[in-house]
Amino acid sequence: MTYCVGLLVEDGLVMVADTRTNAGLDNIATFQKLHRFEVPGERTIGIATAGNLAVSQAVISLMSDGFENSETGILETIYDHPTMFKTAVYVGRAINEVMRLNAGASTTMGAGFDVTMLVGGQVRGGRLRLFMVYSAGNFIEATEDTPYLQIGEHKYGKPILDRAITFQTKLNDALKIGLISMDSTMRSNLGVGMPIDLWLTRRDTMESQVATRIEQGEPYFHDLRERWSAALRSAHQAIPVPPYLKS
């Protein structure tokens, strides 16, 4: 299991991903799920992955090395596309290509061979955008009405996003809310765990402002977890006792 979230607000984009993979209670490992493709000043792209690890790794490698466009015969990499929309189309084609190369395995494994990806970033001359690309290669886009997208074990981290995130949310607040959403998920699902990979870019900069890994015991994240827990306890204690209870 995994959890990845992308938050697209007026000031920029935040992407957060855990690194735990789980192939059984006795087979837990750490793998990177948030990948960056960047040429500062020209393009900055973040891709978070959920689903079958072998498929995810194959797709990331294929996009880095490049594969032939069946219509033009030209070898294309993820750095070769003039807009984020065409980048998302390319990611969908890469997923389809990996599925095609592993057609026998995908038929045998069914849903276990699925992969979903968050693709966010900006190409010079275009808009900062965030997409969710499905295993079929099609995708949806984050909007001002719904400025976040999640993949993996999303239900535990969703309530805080629904209550706290709008397109006008400041970027530093979006970063905090993304981390709280991750913490809520980790507390409720042992299949999601640290370290946490974090990426942030400001609109129209075409480069990363934050690209880091949060390890277990990192002071700020530990403090954030404790403060959030304390704030929740304080909030529910401040709410009046329900009138349904008889004295």
Task: Describe, in plain words, how this protein is organized in 3D.
- The chain has six helices and 14 strands.
- Helix 5 packs across helix 6 (219-238).
- Helices cover 34% and strands 30% of the residues.
- The protein has helices at 53-65, 84-101, 103-109, 158-164, 171-188, 219-238; strands at residues 3-9, 12-18, 20-22, 28-30, 34-39, 43-51, 67-68, 75-76, 115-123, 129-133, 139-141, 148-152, 196-202, 210-214.
- The mean pLDDT is 92.
- With 247 residues, the chain is an alpha+beta fold.
- It starts with a strand and ends in a 9-residue tail after the last helix.
- Strands 12-1-2-13-14 form a five-stranded antiparallel β-sheet, with helices on one face. Strands 5-6-9-10-11 form a five-stranded antiparallel β-sheet.
